[in-house]
């Protein structure tokens, strides 16, 4: 069963003084999500943010090799494949970030000595890749029915040289930015699960970006809810 | 930093716990907390005027509610762990708040005690068979767990055979164990599934739908062709009809059942009955 949910146009997240007054306001790109599109994995999802698209598949709880099994919880594995070329060190580091986020949220103690594998394939990269991977992984985990204590989402902020905050930057904006910050937030209390930052920024700018990301995550979670309601309303 | 705090406070309002009764039949997401019925009445100082005085004024009396698949106890509340529709079943008799569970759509099976499943024998080691049931571990099946089996009279089970049995041990800490007899020692339909026929996999939700008491799909199929069919709660269905073509038609109908409305299904059955 394929469910596609498109939000209309851009979702604007006006934060008031969170964004620089010179900027046009903080806005996220167009979202789209499709679930249960692959037949082999136990759960799959494709997440689109503007032109960035990531396909995720989840297998689990499945058999695990004795060398990798953990006696009291599930072994979570994340595999990220880039669009072209072999996976390198950057992919390994992103895999670790995504795995740490998933481990904080998935109830692994319900399935000890099993493995839950998340496979992510980058279909197109036009900025905010890590956030899109996190969103796709969350939707795929929900589709597979893996027990979780909350949902999570990824939001990227870019700070350019005059301090303007841009949410969900394109690759051009990321290249020209002074700093790019990615946050993973949970759905229960918008707490910070993971942050990955690159560049130069001050302490107050970090707090501003975090606040803007928390406000933007509200839109992402509302999108998740609408998308899942539409999926279950057909059955 | 007053700014991030004030922004965060606005959005915390969305995550307040809701009463389970008000959410019945709606889609719930992982992370939501649900309040059980007696807790709403006890909250608030006024309360209902007619409650009898209790000697232990502080403690609330609890109604025993069973927490089904997709829900976990979290303090006094229920935490939703899977996405799906929230359902409730009233208790048949006696006290108790009934059962709450989440109806979710899944493909992966997790062994549950008492479930009848179709397994494939993968190995024979000494006195036990290893049976693949689609979970994270193969289940073990002792050769004595068949009707009329003794140490001298061993059952005729080979690697690759299909077995219909039920779980006697199935929890997260131990290897699942299955048997092909019921508690009285009779087979009751369980055991090795015969020759021929077709085994295929569907989602767990479809099996539950087909096994519901008010499902007419199986009766309609029976009127179409005479058939033998076995449903395993692990998403596996074995079907056998007179010819291979009929078997394949039935398998295709069952796989497509999930996405068809009842009108489309009736159309297909009537078209097949004519030809």
Give a verbal description of the structure.
The complex is a heterodimer of chains A (235) and B (275). Chain A has a single domain (29-231), classed as Ribosomal Protein S5, domain 2, CATH 3.30.230.70. Helix content of chain A is 30%, strand content 32%. Chain A contains four helices and twelve strands, in the order βββββββαβαββαββα. Chain A has helices spanning 89-105, 129-144, 171-176, 203-233, and strands at 3-6, 11-12, 27-28, 31-35, 43-49, 52-62, 75-81, 115-124, 152-159, 165-167, 179-186, 192-199. In chain A, helix 1 packs across helix 2 (129-144). With 275 residues, chain B is α+β, with helices and mostly antiparallel strands. Chain B has three domains: 18-39 and 63-103, OB fold (Dihydrolipoamide Acetyltransferase, E2P) (Beta Barrel), CATH 2.40.50; 115-192, Nucleic acid-binding proteins (OB fold (Dihydrolipoamide Acetyltransferase, E2P), Beta Barrel), CATH 2.40.50; 198-274, 2-Layer Sandwich (Ribosomal Protein S8, Chain: A, domain 1), CATH 3.30.1370.10. Helix content of chain B is 21%, strand content 28%. Chain B contains six helices and 17 strands. Mean pLDDT of chain B is 85; it is low at 1-14 and 40-47.
């Amino acid at each position: 069963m394929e469910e596609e949910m498109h939000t209309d146009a851009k979702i604007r997240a006006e934060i008031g003084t969170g964004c620089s007054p010179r900027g046009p306001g903080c806005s996220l790109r167009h979202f789209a999500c499709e679930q249960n599109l692959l037949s082999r994995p136990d759960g799959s999802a494709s997440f689109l943010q503007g032109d960035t698209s990531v396909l995720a598949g989840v297998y689990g709880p499945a058999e695990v090799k004795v060398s990798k099994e953990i006696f009291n919880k599930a072994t979570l594995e994340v595999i990220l494949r880039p669009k072209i070329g072999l996976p390198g060190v950057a992919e390994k580091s992103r895999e670790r970030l995504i795995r740490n986020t998933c481990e904080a949220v998935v109830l692994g103690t319900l399935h000890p000595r099993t493995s839950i594998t998340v496979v992510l394939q980058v279909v197109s990269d036009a900025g905010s890749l890590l956030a899109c991977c996190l969103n796709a992984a969350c939707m795929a985990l929900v589709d597979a029915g893996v027990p979780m204590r909350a949902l999570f989402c990824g939001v990227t902020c870019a700070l350019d040289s005059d301090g303007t905050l841009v949410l969900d930057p394109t690759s051009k904006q990321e290249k020209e930015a002074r700093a790019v910050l990615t946050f993973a937030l949970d759905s229960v209390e918008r707490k910070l699960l993971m942050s990955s930052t690159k560049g130069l920024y001050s302490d107050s700018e970090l707090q501003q970006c975090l606040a803007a990301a928390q406000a933007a995550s509200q839109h992402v979670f509302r999108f998740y809810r609408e998308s899942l309601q539409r999926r279950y309303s057909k059955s | 930093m007053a700014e991030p705090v004030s922004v965060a406070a606005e959005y915390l309002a969305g995550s307040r716990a809701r009463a389970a009764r008000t959410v019945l039949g709606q889609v719930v997401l992982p992370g939501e907390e649900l309040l059980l019925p007696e807790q709403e009445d006890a909250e608030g100082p006024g309360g209902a005027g007619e409650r009898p005085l209790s000697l232990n004024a502080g403690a609330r009396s609890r109604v025993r509610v069973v927490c089904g698949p997709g829900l976990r106890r979290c303090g006094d509340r229920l935490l939703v762990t899977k996405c799906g529709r929230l359902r409730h079943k009233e208790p048949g008799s006696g006290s108790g708040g009934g059962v709450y569970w989440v109806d979710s759509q899944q493909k992966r099976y997790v062994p549950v005690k008492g479930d009848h499943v179709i397994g494939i024998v993968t190995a024979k080691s000494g006195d036990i068979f290893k049976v693949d049931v689609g979970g994270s571990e193969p289940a073990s099946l002792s050769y004595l767990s068949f009707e009329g089996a003794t140490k001298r009279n061993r059952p005729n089970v080979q690697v690759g055979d299909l077995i219909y049995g039920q779980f006697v041990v199935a929890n997260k800490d131990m290897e699942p164990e299955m048997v092909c007899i019921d508690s009285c020692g009779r087979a009751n339909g369980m055991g090795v599934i015969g020759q021929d026929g077709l085994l295929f996999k569907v989602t767990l939700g479809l099996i539950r739908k087909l096994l519901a008491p008010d499902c007419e799909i199986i009766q309609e199929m029976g009127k179409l062709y005479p058939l033998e069919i076995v449903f395993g709660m692990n998403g596996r269905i074995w079907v056998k009809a007179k010819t291979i073509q009929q078997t394949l038609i039935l398998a295709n109908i069952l796989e497509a059942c999930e996405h068809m409305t009842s009108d489309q299904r009736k159309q297909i059955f009537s078209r097949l009955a004519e030809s």
